[in-house]
Amino acid sequence: MRHLFLILAALAFSLPVHAAETLKIATATPDGTQWMDDMRTGAKEIKERTEGRVQIKYYGGGIKGDDKKVLGQIRIRQLQGGAFTPSALTSQYSDLNLYGMPLIFDSEEEAAYVRSRLDARLQKGLEDAGFVNFGFATSGFANIMSNTPVRSLSDLKGKRVWVPEGDTISYASMQALSLSPVTLPLTDVLTGLQTGLIDIVAIPPFVALILQWHTKVKYVTKVPLVYTFGFMAVDKKAFEKINAEDQAIVREVMGRIYENFNKVNLVDNDAAFDALVKSGIQPVELDEEEYKKTRKVLLASNRQLGEQGKFTKELYDEMMRYVDEYRSQRGATGRD
After folding, report:
1. HSE-up of 23 (CA within 13 Å, CB side)?
2. pLDDT in tens, 159-189
3. Is the C or the N end of the chain the one with fewer CB within 10 Å?
4. Percent of the chain with pLDDT over 70
5. pLDDT at 195 over 80
6. Which residues neighbour 177 within 8 Å (Cβ) at sequence distance 6 or greater?
7. Which residues 6+ apart lie within 8 Å of 25 measured at CB?
8. To which H or E segment does residue 41 belong?
9. What is the rounded CA–CA span in Å between residue 249 and residue 80?
10. Measured between alpha carbons, how far is residue 178 from residues 99, 202, 288 in Å?
């Protein structure tokens, strides 16, 4: 009997043991929002289905700092990932913000058509750069928000226009329009509006409500200025510590959640615009001729940036072919 016990004990110690892995994820999204509730529900499902082998802990409300600080903490393994917008990781993967170039898309349907052809490639590029992700969730189009009406390009002259930290493409676009871009991390924008450091921001309406930026502006110009999206990025080395079966569970659950975000955010954005107007913010329309003139300048700037190697020019050209393809199929040429 003693020999049998020793044999069983030896077998038990020889079995592979998978230690519990905790993914610590930072986000600027405040606690109490639907986004955080859904993410925590996903974390609970993952913990249950992996029998505790994978746990996810979220740090909301920007308590871990701006994107630069979060990435620094990921490098030293204090965090394993974060919820980001493309500008945060363009230095790691320069093509990530192709969708976010100003005035590329005219509609959500047009953007969805292009994304159905390019999303998988961009996701793979991000993983090749060292970050596992679970799909992209649109936040809708960023609209111009300001304290003076913006109906034309001339209305932006002399104003300090916010550009997200790390978004070199938007910065160059603002310079091409002879504007005055001011770079700030997302976490500093509300303070920037309060102190007058910036005058103009571009943000999707429902994000403006979540981050309370709408409390510091008086006008909103509804124009498809910039197509925005977000994603969760997890350090690939940290993710690969999880066994393959559990990795598949994490990908399935988080992929499903982000697919749902991609759908509901559009509905939320429309409702949020109405909420902005009801709160007293005045809606403004951009002059159509101004739109055409501005887009022409920006497309020329985009091409120049591609030739400078700021992103893969061939991939940009492919994206624009899909835009033209979508418009030709519908007998449209866009607003320009």
Report:
1. 33
2. 999 999 888 889 999 999 999 999 999 889 9
3. N
4. 93
5. yes
6. 153, 156, 294, 297, 298
7. 39, 56, 57, 58, 59, 79, 80, 81, 82, 83, 232, 234
8. helix 34-49
9. 17
10. 22, 17, 20
Instruction: Report strand pairing: 137-146 vs 201-203.
Output: antiparallel
DSSP 200: B
Is residue 54 classed as helix, strand or coil in its secondary structure?
strand
Residue 333 pLDDT level (bands cut at 50, 70, 90): low
Two structure tokens written together for 210: 């979540």
DSSP 85-122: -GGGGTTT-GGGGSTTSTT--SSHHHHHHHHHHHHHHH
| Separation CA 238–CA 250 (nearest Å) | 13
Complete domains list, the chain, with CATH: 16-329 (3.40.190.170)
Q: Which residue has the tokens 């940290």?
A: 238
- Among the listed residues 66, 75, 81, the one whose alpha carbon sits nearest the alpha carbon of residue 166: 66
State the pLDDT at residue 103. Answer: 92
pLDDT in tens, 16-25: 455 689 999 9
What's at 185, amino acid-wise? P
pTM for the model? 0.86
The β-bridge partners of 226 are 142
Amino acid at 147: N
Question: What residues form DSSP beta bridges with 72?
Answer: none
